[in-house]
Amino acid sequence: MRTTICDLDRQYEPLLRWGCDALIWADGRYAPCQGCFRCWTAHPAECFMKDELRRICRVVGQADTLTIITENLYGGYSPAVKNVLDRSIGLSTPLSAYRGGQMHHTLRYGRHDLLRVMVYGEITQGERDAFSCLVERNALNYGYENYQIVFLRHPDELEGLL
């Protein structure tokens, strides 16, 4: 399954829908994670909040290829994208295991192929370095075998990359 999380305007929908099984619009209208951890314990992989992100853990957890398209914000994801990623914490379990020689939460849905992050907007070299480290760590935490980060000046440069 190929899943895309993006903070772009809806004008990019035709471009994003091609070759994508699930498209999640990080448009800032979802409630933030409450940190209750019920998606870990009481209702595994399901958020108690009854909005469109209720089953985001399953959608992200079952993605063989996860593409994240985000505006750069000081070397990190945009707030709307970060909110969607926070709400997907239930893709792992509260139990721990060693991966990459480090302790990480056990994956609920197993290993995956590719985490691809496409970052647009102005970005300094320091922000590039920070974002690259963030994506590497996210790939390990989410169980992706491979990761790729692409820096773009503007979202219009996505054509041909998806």
Strand order within the widest beta sheet: 2-1-3-6-7
Low-confidence stretches: none
Tell me the number of strands.
Answer: 7
Strand content: 25-35%
Structural class determined from secondary elements: alpha/beta
What is the 3D shape? globular
Number of H- or I-type helical stretches: 4
Gyration radius, in Å: 15 Å
Oligomer: single chain
Order of helices and strands: EHEHEHEEEHE
Give the CA-CA distance, first to last residue.
14 Å
Question: Could you explain how this protein is built, in words?
Answer:
With 162 residues, the chain is an alpha/beta fold. The protein is 23% helix and 30% strand. The chain has 4 helices and 7 strands. It has helices at 13-17, 56-61, 79-87, 125-142, and strands at residues 2-6, 22-25, 65-71, 92-99, 102-107, 112-120, 144-152. Strands 2-1-3-6-7 form a 5-stranded parallel sheet, with helices on one face. The two termini are 14 Å apart.
Q: How would you summarize this macromolecular structure in one to three sentences?
A:
With 162 residues, this protein is an alpha/beta fold.
